[in-house]
Amino acid sequence: GTTLTISSNHWIMAWTGLEINTLAILPLIAKSHHPRAIEAATKYFLVQAAASALVLFSSMTNAWHTGQWDITQLTHPTSSVILTSAIAMKLGLVPFHFWFPEVLQGSSLLTGLLLSTAMKFPPLTLLFLTSHSLDPTLLTLMAIMSTALGGWMGLNQTQIRKILAFSSISHLGWMAIIIAFNPKLTMLNFYLYSLMTATVFLTLNTMKVTKLPSLMTAWTKTPSLNAMLLLALLSLAGLPPLTGFLPKWLIIQELTKQEMALAATIISLLSLLSLFFYLRLAYCATITLPPHTTNHIKLWH
């Protein structure tokens, strides 16, 4: 599905690829037979089906007005707005973000990793291909809202999957704000984000951790993995000596070149919100034990 979408020139083929992707991930979400997993699969299916229909609708509108089915020839303004909303829905950008934390919470860690990285790639490619005809104002607005919401909503979560979902939403904000000006930076940001998120998800999967309290006792099992997790989380937060700082730096630089210093300032300040919960995760992972007695059996007992 992904290969079909990223290599196609025709809108119908791109849409087919997106549909195949959606259908392929559903059994992976619903695999555990838990009611919450089934609910997550249903939510995911409904949202993605609606978004795919919107993609098809926008390309049809464009073809109706311009006679072009070529992906790069999306010139009709209404079509490009509809497409932006459809892709935002597929990715989980604000204001279409409600499904994403719920779906991630209902899936296993490995499926969550797929949902956060591989499933974001085809829609982002479509945005990349049409980036020259997208509306920068709309994208900037969505991006700033995503970064704000990703930071604020992640603050009072104790479920690590939900925290990672909100982190994904705020990273998508960084990708969306720059795509109309320098699409290559968006792709760089996406690749580095996928790498760091994969590190976090795979580490958590090895330690069998899904909640903050169980993360606090995880250092007894795998001290070295925990140190790795600390670095990966700080890198996701975008702290300077680490890799995650690179895309943010380049994006801020590009935004100031485009005379969007205000947007750059706002989005940088909003990413401080998500820095807080990354630091809390890192703190729980490596430094502290909870002040109260835990219900978890320590592994060395």
Overall SS class: mainly alpha
User: What is the count of β-strands?
Assistant: 0
The major β-sheet equals:
none
Low-confidence stretches: none
Radius of gyration: 20 Å
Beta percentage is under 5%
How many domains?
2
Q: Could you give the order of the helices and strands?
A: HHHHHHHHHHHHHH
End-to-end distance, in Å? 48 Å
**Overall spatial form:** globular
Q: State the helix count.
A: 14
Q: Average the pLDDT over all residues and give the rounded result.
A: 93
Describe the protein:
This protein has 301 residues and is mostly helical. 73% of the residues lie in helices and 0% in strands. It has helices at 2-7, 11-30, 35-66, 77-91, 99-106, 109-116, 121-129, 136-154, 160-178, 183-207, 212-216, 223-237, 245-257, 261-286. Helix 5 (99-106) packs across helix 9. It is globular, with a radius of gyration of 20 Å. The model has no long low-confidence stretch (mean pLDDT 93). This is NADH-ubiquinone oxidoreductase chain 2. The chain crosses the membrane at residues 12-30, 42-60, 80-100, 112-131, 137-156, 163-181, 187-204, 225-246, 261-279. Pfam families: NADH_dehy_S2_C, Proton_antipo_M. Keywords: Electron transport, Membrane, Mitochondrion, Mitochondrion inner membrane, NAD, Respiratory chain, Translocase, Transmembrane, Transmembrane helix, Transport, Ubiquinone.
List keywords for this structure.
301 residues, mainly alpha, 14 helices, 73% helix, globular
Q: In summary, what is this structure?
A:
By secondary structure, the protein is an all-alpha fold.
